[in-house]
Specification:
Blueprint (H helix, E strand, L loop, with lengths): L9 H12 L7 E5 L5 H16 L5 E4 L31 E5 L11 H6 L2 E6 L10 E4 L6 H11 L6 H14 L10 H11 L5 H9 L4 H12 L2 E3 L2 H4 L2 E6 L1 H7 L10 H5 L6 E9 L2 E8 L5 H7 L3 E2 L3 E7 L2 H12 L5
Helix pairs in contact: 2-4, 2-5, 4-5, 5-6, 5-7
Length: 339
Amino acid sequence: MTQPGSGPAAGQWDAAVAAIRALGGTDEIQLICHVNPDGDALGSMLGFALALRRLGFTRVRATFPGAFLIPGPYTELPGIDLLVPEEDAFPAPALVLVFDVASESRLGGLAARAVAAPVGIVLDHHASNTGFGTIRLVDPQAAATSVLAEELTRRLGVPLDREIAECFYVALATDTGSFTFDMTTVAVHELAARLIATGIRPGDISRRIFDTRAFGAMKLVGEVLGRAVLEPSAAGGLGLVWTYATLADLERHGQPPYVLDTLIGPVRSVAEADVSMVVKQVGAGEWSVSLRSKGAVDVSRLAVSQGGGGHRLAAGFTGFGEPSDVVDIVRRLLGEFLN
């Protein structure tokens, strides 16, 4: 696991630049992000894919494992034409770049391809990163993986243009909660300023990413929030608030799974709880668990104990059984991971 504060060594940056510059323009380069990609995963990956195009590479593809479903807010990202389904990824690329992935398990059926590639460069900002890949650009103090992708782009001598900048800005904005999370530093705002200086329109991007949803999605969110439970005595008296959503909920409102990704925001805002949790069904007896903490609990350590990962204040894992089974596990473990 990556230690907090241990950003990429200079040698790792140099190795990544050298590995890319050693390739010919027609060599196959495969970019991969995690299953069920979010804004940081897609924005970082597509922004860097465009940077590779600017360098003259013509055989560049981007993908992610699992069903080829692109969340609605990201369908207009520049470089979306470089995105292909898992089955269309290069079978034996000369280089694989992995974005926003803490462990190989998040690569699904693409994990073997990443391991088999002559060179594998990993760009990530999760404290739970397991240290896979031949070249590791991992910084748990980075607000988003796009911070690392932009730095590698700069070291390669690729100037920012509006398309690359829009991808990186979407990634940065989503993983900082519109620049409201603890990782929003002076350096984050300086990076945002450089991206905006290319001519992108932050207002338009924010409306598309954060403030647009289908009526059915609004109704679904209202229903799921309505079943939220507050447990003031959990986490040593600091409080836990949680809710759950089923596949039947999605079907009833005619919505795709990604609309549930924003649910953790309003749940997290509950004043009486330090820890918040959303349990989302992904299959029969299988649940994707999103955890947030306001600071008293290290939810990353909790998630890692259950085979997941993430950050100290934001993490997740896969749970099994019924929602009550998942909640029982989390409730029991909260006291073990108080900061």
